[in-house]
Each structure stands twice: as structure tokens, then as C-alpha cells.
């Protein structure tokens, strides 16, 4: 179902469904009944004050309801999924890398090279000391 139209009632219905909320729960949050929610979701327009109340009950902004589209929601979740991974402890986001991994790899290579050179120098000194003791 595409919500490319400006049918506010359908947009409210889709957001409510995405939030896994029944009409009864939204009705209770708004202090009304399920039939009123059904009628609201079937209406093409809604007054601004009521839209603000509905948005608050759904946990979104009025602009989110006005600008909602299924395509945008699908894109959001696809992008979220693409930048996340799941392990046994849950889902972790790994979206913003603040360093270049290749630069870090080269730093480690250089550090290992320096450590190897120091180790080699230490071994040379040990050999020279042992040779001196033998003579």
C-alpha cells in the first residue's frame, strides 16, 4: 500500500500499525473510542490540534505523520539494516568509522617493525656480551 497521497488518516493508520498499536490502544491514549479512531483513519484530513495529539500518542512528530510514506520507511529500515550487524548479545550499529582502517593497519605494521628492530638489537648485544665473556 503506497502512501504517496496526502491522506492523513491512512498515514496515521500505517504509523500505528508499524508501532504495533491497535486502534483500541490509540483510542485509550487519546481518551476516545475505537470507532472514532477508525473514522479518523478513514478521513483524508484532520485538524492540526488533533494531529498534534495523535502524533504525541504515537510517539512521532506531526511532521512525521504529514511526510510519512511507505517507501521512506522501507528505505530507512533497509539503510539501518545495511549498517548493522547482529551477534548473540544483540544488534550493534557500526555506521560511522572515524578513522581509515588501512592507516591503522600501517601504523601497527610500523610499530611491529620497530619492535622487531629493538629485539634484534637486543639479541646482538647479548651475543656480543656472551662472546666477550667467552674470551
Folded structure, characterized:
By secondary structure, this protein is mainly alpha-helical. The chain has 2 domains: 8-93, 434 Repressor (Amino-terminal Domain) (Orthogonal Bundle), CATH 1.10.260; 98-135. 68% of the residues lie in helices and 6% in strands. A two-stranded antiparallel ribbon has the order 1-2. A hairpin with a 2-residue loop joins strand 1 (84-87) and strand 2 (90-93). Helix 1 crosses helix 3 (34-42) and helix 2 (23-30) crosses helix 3. It is rod-shaped, with a radius of gyration of 31 Å. The model has no long low-confidence stretch (mean pLDDT 83).
Quick structural gist:
By secondary structure, this protein is mainly α.
Give the number of DSSP strands. Answer: 2
Question: What is the CATH superfamily of the largest domain?
Answer: lambda repressor-like DNA-binding domains
Q: N-to-C terminal Cα separation, in Å?
A: 92 Å
Number of separate helices: 7
Low-confidence stretches: none
GO molecular function, one term: DNA binding
Pfam families: HTH_3 (PF01381)
Domain HTH cro/C1-type: 12-65
Organism: Flavobacterium cerinum
Amino acid at each position: 500500500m503506497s502512501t504517496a497521497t496526502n491522506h492523513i488518516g491512512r498515514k496515521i493508520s500505517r504509523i500505528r500499525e508499524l508501532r504495533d498499536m491497535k486502534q483500541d490502544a490509540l483510542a485509550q491514549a487519546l481518551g476516545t473510542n475505537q470507532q472514532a479512531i477508525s473514522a479518523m483513519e478513514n478521513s483524508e484530513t484532520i485538524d492540526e490540534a488533533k494531529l498534534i495529539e495523535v502524533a504525541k500518542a504515537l510517539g512521532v512528530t506531526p511532521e512525521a505523520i504529514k511526510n510519512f510514506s511507505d517507501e521512506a520507511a522501507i528505505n530507512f529500515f533497509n539503510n539501518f539494516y545495511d549498517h548493522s550487524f547482529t551477534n548473540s548479545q544483540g544488534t550493534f550499529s557500526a555506521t560511522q568509522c572515524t578513522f581509515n582502517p588501512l592507516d591503522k593497519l600501517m601504523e601497527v605494521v610500523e610499530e611491529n617493525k620497530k619492535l622487531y628492530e629493538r629485539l634484534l638489537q637486543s639479541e646482538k648485544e647479548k651475543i656480543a656480551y656472551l662472546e666477550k665473556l667467552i674470551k
